[in-house]
Amino acid sequence: MNSAERPVLKTPGEKREILLHSCCAPCEGEVLETLLLSEIKPTVFFYNPNIHPKKEYEIRKNEDKKFCEKIGVKHVDADYDPMSWFKRIKGLEWEPERGARCTACFDFRFERTALYAHENGFEVFSSSLGISRWKNMDQINGCGERAASRYENLIYWTYNWRKFGGSQRMIEISKEEGFYQQEYCGCVYSLRDTNKWRMSQGRKKVKIGEKYYGDND
Asked: Model-level pTM?
C-alpha cells in the first residue's frame, strides 16, 4: 500500500483491533489503509439495508467484500434486511438529506454494528460513513456514540477520517482500484431526490451499475 504520508493513529484506549462499519468500498479504502499502516487490525462489518435497489446493494456489497479480500481484512456480511429498515424509517420519507431520516438510518445501522461488536469482543467501533463530505460528521458521531452507550465498555471512535488529506486519499484509492462510483447515498428516497435534482439541471437520471471512477459524465 502507498502510505501517502497518512498519520499513525491510536484508537481510544490504544486497542489494537477495531470493528469498522463500512458503507462502501470507496469510503472504506482510505480508512482501512490508514488503520493497517497504524498496525490496527480492522474487521469490516457490512450492514446497509437502506441501499436500494437490490442490484445497487449487491454491487456495493460485492465490491466491498472483494476489496477486503484483496488486502487481507476480514469482511462480515450482515446481509440484506430492507423491510426492517423501512419500518424504522416510516413517517420520515420526505425528510431532507442530513435530516431526521438520516439520523434514524444511522441509528439503525449502528445499533446492529454495536450489537455485533458487543457479542464478538470488540471494545471500539467506527464507521467509514464520516469520510464523505456529503455527510454531517456531528450527526454520524452522535448516532455512533448513542449506539455504543447501549453496552458497557464499548466506545464509538469519532476520529475525523477527512483530516490530513483523507478525503483526497479516498478519491485516489478509488481511482486506483476502479471502484464503482455510486451517485446517491443509497436509499430509495435519496435516489428519488437525486433524480429530481438531476432532471431539474437537464441531466439524465442515475443509471445503476454504470459509473466507475475515471469514467466521464
From this structure: 0.93
